[in-house]
Amino acid sequence: MTSKETNEVKELYQRLIHAWNNRNANGMAQLYTNEGDMIGFDGSLVSGREEIFAHLKPIFEEHPTPPFVYKVKGIRQVSTDTAILRAIVGMVPPGETELDPSLNAHQTLVAVKEEGKWSIELFQNTPAQFHGRPELVKKMTNELSE
Question: What Gene3D superfamilies does the entry give (predicted)?
Answer without folding.
Answer: 3.10.450.50
